[in-house]
Amino acid sequence: MTEPPPNRPAAPALRSAYVLLGAMTLVSFAGPFGLALLLAGGERRGWPPDRPVEWAGAAVLLVLFSACLVACLTVRLWLLRPTRDEDRPKSES
């Protein structure tokens, strides 16, 4: 990772990074409770689900969690603003 030049403060974190972190927190904590409520219905309670809506709910929760996890891990790659050449420190060569 590169550090900002000593004469410039670090750029403030973007709001979208905090929204992404909030979404990951919501999916991580509320998701299992939602899945438990979804699995409580039907003829048979527990795992494996007996209704298609239970399978769909479990799949959606897994996809949401996976998407948030990948986005949180790669947020620095796709949220960074490109720096101008004049802001970069000159390398001595």
TrEMBL record:
<keyword id="KW-0812">Transmembrane</keyword>
<feature type="transmembrane region" description="Helical">
    <location>
        <begin position="17"/>
        <end position="40"/>
    </location>
</feature>
<feature type="transmembrane region" description="Helical">
    <location>
        <begin position="55"/>
        <end position="79"/>
    </location>
</feature>
<keyword id="KW-1133">Transmembrane helix</keyword>
<keyword id="KW-0472">Membrane</keyword>
<protein>
    <submittedName>
        <fullName>Uncharacterized protein</fullName>
    </submittedName>
</protein>
